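Hey team,

Filing this mostly as a record. A colleague (T.K.) asked me to run one chain through the structure pipeline before their review meeting, and I want the input and output archived in the tracker in case anyone asks later how it was produced. No errors, nothing strange. Just documentation.

Input sequence:
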Amino acid sequence: MTTFAYLALWEIGDADRPRAALIAEASAALDVMAANDGARIVGDPTWTVADRRLVCEAPAVPLAALEESESARRARLEGDVLRLAGLRWSARQIAATTGLSPNTVRAVLARYAGPTTTTEETRAA
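Output structure:
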């Protein structure tokens, strides 16, 4: 299967953040961004910092070559939503990264939300 180089850029808002922290945050979204762009990362990314940008270059293959089924695509997107929500991303940020609507993101989060308790239930316990 032919691979190509997938390139992703992130603006660095806080120049005081350590490079490792920037990479950790960007790594969490890399697979989601690549999938949204029609690619799957298949190797180790290379990270550099240039002009207040974090730059990632990684070997990838086109998703079309992998023939992802609709149910597999849906499961992958739901997993992406839950992973980014675990990083405390907002529904709007998740939607912009995954290509889903904010309402769809909220529906996925609601489907997997744990039980909630009211103040009265907490006091009774």
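Quick notes for T.K.: Strands lie at 4-11, 39-41, 46-50, 53-62. The CA atoms of residues 47 and 69 lie 31 Å apart.
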